[in-house]
Amino acid sequence: MKYYPVYLDLRDRPCVIAGGGGVAERKTLSLLEAGADVTVVSPSLTPKLQELSLSGKISHRLKKFEDRDMEHAYLVIAATDSLELNADIGKSCRKRHILVNVAAPPEESTFLVPSVVDRGDLLIAVSTCGSSPALSKKIRQELELHYGEEYELFLEKMSLVRDRLMGEMGDEATRRAVFQAIVDSDVLDLIRQGKTHEADHRIAELSGALRR
After folding, report:
1. Angle at 78 between CA 76 and CA 84, to 5 degrees
2. Is residue 200 helix, strand or coil?
3. What is the extent of the structural domain holding 195?
4. Is residue 2 very low, low, confident or very high in pLDDT (cuts 50, 70, 90)?
5. Who has the most CB within 10 Å: 17, 57, 100, 161?
């Protein structure tokens, strides 16, 4: 295995993006979705990044990136239009043990950003380790067709069941049996068909039967 797959909790973490173009914009939006505290360092910004800066959703330093811009950064993304600058940022971050993703050249990165299927608490990440981003995209699109929006609602319901059973049911083995029974049942199909009340009834039925 070339890379160690991991999900990072970036909520309120200081993340710095070097660059203000289209790639930087996409990276910024994904970091904001993860709850990161984002600073963009660039002499210019895309209209969307300008909008985010004016609304206070990101911080913007109107300048070229310097090493001091990575001070206190938890994570850095190098997405400028200069391969040389990107590589230098990658090297500097590696020396400082700061997580860094370099758009190009990618070999200067300490982590890669996968192609992601986002269904709420269900995150499916796909990576070809940089060999073929086009294939990662194709696989992601195929997964999106298989794992639809119903999974987000299903996991919301499962989270509520888990919280309730953790307080009501002390036996771990029984809790696991309930969770597995719900996953193996027709609850997902009912949600997919828009029959949410029937799904709730089925969950309650399975929970009650296995607790007896």
Report:
1. 135
2. helix
3. 150-211
4. confident
5. 17
Measured at the CA of 124, the angle between CA 1 and CA 106, to 5 degrees, comes to 50
Distance CA 91, CA 99 (A): 11
In this structure, the answer to whether residues 50 and 64 fall within a common structural domain is: yes
Looking at residue 41, its amino acid is: V
Q: Which residues pair with 17 in a beta bridge?
A: 40, 77
Specify whether 107 is located in the same domain as 3: yes
Do both 168 and 93 map to the same domain? Answer: no
The count of domains in the chain is 3
Q: Residue 182 carries which side chain, given as an amino acid letter?
A: I
Strands (E) across 52-207 are located at 59-61, 75-78, 99-102, 115-119, 122-126
pTM over 0.85: yes
The DSSP output letter for 154 is: H
Closest to 120 in 3D by CA, of 159, 151, 147, 160: 151
Beta bridge partners of 117: 124
Residues 141, 154, single domain; the answer is: no
Q: Which amino acid is at 108?
A: E
For 170-186, b/e burial (b = at least 16 CB within 10 A) is eeeeebeebbebbeeee
Using pLDDT thresholds of 50, 70 and 90, give the confidence band for residue 211.
low
Q: What is the mean pLDDT of residues 176-201?
A: 96
Alpha helical stretches, state H, 36-110: 47-54, 83-96
